Amino acid sequence: MSEGTTVRDEGPDPSEPLHPQPPTPLPEPEKKRSRTSELTRRWLTAAVLVPMVVYVIALGGIPYLAVVTIFIVLGQREFYGLIEDKGAHPLVGLGLVAGAALPLVAYVGNAYHATLLMTASLLVLMLAQLRKAQITEALASISGTFFGVFYVGWLLSHAIGLRFFTSAALSMYPPEDLLFVELSPDSGIFFMLYTLTAVVWCDAGAYFAGRAYGRRKLAPNISPGKTVEGALGGVLAGTAGALVTKLLFDTFWPELSAALPWGPTLLFGVAISLVAIMGDLVESLLKRDAAVKDAGALLPGMGGILDRIDSPLLAIPVMYYMLLGYLFLRI
C-alpha cells in the first residue's frame, strides 16, 4: 500500500457469520420509579410519625399542647410561604404569634376565650398594617395573614378541645347531666385516635382505589390526579378505619369509647371521611393558586407539615362539633 493511501472500513466480511447483539433493555420509566420511591419514603416517614403522634395523644398534658403548637407554627409558616409565592407580604411574625397562642388559650381556658383571641388578633393585624409604609397591598396582607391564623391556628387548636373533650363538656353542662353519656376523663384519647385513623385510612384508600380504578376526575381544575372512584374508596376505607378503632377500644379500653355508640360511630366515620377529602382539595386549591407542588419539604415523601395536616384541619373541628351536637341531643 502506498504512503498516503486512506484505508476505508469496508464493514463486516460477508463470509463471516453474523452474531447479533442482544437488544438493549429499555430503561424503567422514570415516573414509575419516582412514584415507587416516593411511596417508600412516605411509608418510612409514617412509620416514624404515627407512633410518635399516638404516644403524645395518649400522654396528653403539656407535651401534647407543645406538639399541637409546633404543628400550628410550622404549618402556618408554610401557608404564609404560599402567600409570598403569590407576591403578597403577610405579617408573618404577628400571624405566627396569634396562631401559637390559640392552642394555649384553648388549653388553659375554653372555646370562648379562643374566640376572643381571634377577634383581638384581627384588630392587632389591622393596626399593624396602618404602620406599614406600603399601603397598596393592605387588603392582601391583612386578609392573608388573618386567614392563616384561622385556617391553621384556629382549626387545629380544636385538637386541644377534642383531646380534652370531657373538660370541654363539663364547662358547658353540669356533671350530673353527663352521667348518661359515659364520658371518662380520657375519652378524648379515643376521639382523637378515632378521627385521625379515619383520616389516614381515607387518604390511603383514596390513593390505592384511585390508582386501581380511577377513571372519572373528581376536581380536574384543582387536583387532576384525584378521581371519583378514589374518593369513594377513601370514604369506604376511612369509615372502616373508624369502625376498627371503635372495635379495638371496645375490646381493650371500653371505658374510653363507651361515650360513642356504634350508630354514631358509623355516621361520624362517613362524615369525617368526606370532610377529609374536602380538606385535601382545599389545600390543593391553595397550592394550585400558588403554582407549587408541595407546601414544604420537611416530611420525606409527604411534602410539608401543611400537606400532612390538610385533612385533619377540617376533620378535627367537625368531629368536635359533631360530639357537641350529640351531647346536646343526648342531654
Task: Write up this protein.
Mean pLDDT is 87; it is low at 1-9 and 24-33. This protein has twelve helices and two strands, in the order ααααααααββαααα. It has 331 residues and is mainly alpha-helical. α2 packs antiparallel against α5 (138-156), α5 crosses α12 and α9 (228-252) packs across α11 (262-290). The chain has helices at 30-59, 61-85, 92-108, 111-130, 138-156, 158-163, 165-170, 187-213, 228-252, 254-257, 262-290, 305-330; strands at residues 217-219, 223-227. It has two domains: 48-163, no CATH class; 174-291 and 301-331, no CATH class. The protein has a two-stranded antiparallel sheet. The longest helix has 30 residues, at 30-59.
Radius of gyration from CA coordinates: 27 Å
Q: Record the strand order, biggest sheet.
A: 1-2
Shape: globular
Number of domains: 2
Number of helices: 12
Along the chain, the helix and strand elements come as HHHHHHHHEEHHHH
- Residue stretches low in confidence (pLDDT < 50, at least 5 long) are 1-9, 24-33
Structural class: mainly alpha
* % residues in beta strands: under 5%
- The mean pLDDT is 87
Range of helix content? over 70%
For the largest beta-sheet, the strand count, sense and barrel status come to: 2 strands, antiparallel
Quaternary organisation: single chain
| Count of β-strands | 2
Give the CA-CA distance, first to last residue.
Answer: 112 Å
Key structural traits:
single chain; 331 residues; mainly alpha; 2 domains; two-stranded antiparallel ribbon; 2 strands; globular; disordered N terminus
